[in-house]
Design brief:
- By secondary structure, the protein is an alpha/beta fold.
- The chain has a single domain (about 5-270), classed as Alpha-Beta Barrel (TIM Barrel).
- It contains twelve helices and nine strands.
- It has helices spanning about 5-15, 30-45, 60-75, 80-90, 105-110, 110-120, 135-145, 160-170, 190-205, 215-225, 235-240, 250-270; strands at about 20-25, 50, 95-100, 125-130, 150, 155, 175, 210, 230.
- The protein has a nine-stranded parallel sheet.
- α2 crosses α4, α4 runs parallel beside α6 and α10 packs across α12.
- The longest helix is centred in the last third of the chain and has 25 residues, at about 250-270.
């Protein structure tokens, strides 16, 4: 059983929902990434999505694009991101880490070489935005052969056929993009998301995390009431952007802990209803 699956099973037994925060590796500085990862765990993260900086992040809005640009200017590469995960694992061997990024750096390294290196570093799952399921059978096989969960995106426009294709390949969880657009682009429609979740669960058989458009504890709580996990990215990057190296961890801790409380409050209320 993967760490990701074990995490969801533990949370389900506790009637809790997963909080999955996203940060970009190397932003605001490579020296701070591991500390920020530990901060996320301290704040209540169940799984960490660690973004691999890329020059053309097509799914990301301006906020995460800027984070990638800052990290790339600091010389952060895929291999350096794997090194950050390995350093994180020196003190935390429990919290699952999912790498989220784009195909080019993986293709440059080679899928098999990447899978082996990711496993050695302590990565638990991989989400590649521009690997569609129709072209990802070998990729998913390579990930599973190295004890990595291949994670895929679904969107409001995903057809029944696409959802089933993802269900045949995905493990760990699927990431439902709650809005039509890029990260940070709009406010999500919780009712519309709620209408899609049961179908996605039925066709994929894995937990469903929801992201894009979640900016505060109230919205996170509303999503937690209908999904298995809440993914928050752009709002955290904004907090990093406006912080200094001296207070960035404290500011991120306060923000993510508030979102954690919103998730837990909504879950308790749903159980009591």
């Amino acid at each position: 059983m993967s760490k990701i699956q074990a995490t969801f099973e533990r949370l389900q037994a506790q009637s809790r929902k997963a909080l999955i925060p996203f940060i970009t590796a190397g932003d605001p500085d490579p020296a701070l990434t591991v500390s920020l990862m530990h901060t996320l765990v301290e704040a209540g993260a169940d799984i960490i999505e660690l973004g691999v900086p890329f020059s053309d992040p097509m799914a990301d809005g301006p906020t995460i694009q800027r984070a990638s640009e800052r990290a790339l200017l600091k010389g952060v590469s895929l291999r350096k991101v794997l090194g950050m995960v390995a350093n994180f694992r020196a003190d935390d061997n429990q919290t699952p880490v999912v790498l989220m990024g784009y195909a080019n750096p993986i293709e440059a390294m080679g899928v098999e070489a990447f899978a082996a290196a990711a496993y050695d570093a302590g990565v638990d799952g991989v989400l590649v935005v521009d690997y569609p399921p129709e072209e990802s059978v070998e990729f998913a096989q390579a990930m599973r052969a190295n004890a990595l969960d291949p994670i895929f995106l679904l969107a409001p426009t995903s057809t029944d056929e696409r959802i089933s294709q993802v269900g045949a390949l995905a493990s760990g969880y699927v990431y439902y993009v709650s809005i039509k657009g890029v990260t940070g682009a709009a406010t999500l429609d919780v009712a519309a998301v709620a209408a899609r979740i049961p179908e996605i669960r039925a066709r994929t058989g894995v937990p469903v995390g929801v992201g894009f458009g979640i900016r505060d504890a109230v919205t996170a709580g509303a999503v937690a009431a209908i999904a298995d996990a809440v993914v928050v990215g752009s709002r955290i990057i904004e907090e990093i952007e406006k912080s200094t190296p001296d207070n960035v961890c404290a500011n991120v801790l306060a923000l993510v802990a508030d979102i954690r409380r919103g998730i837990d409050k909504a879950t308790i209320a749903a159980d009591a209803a």
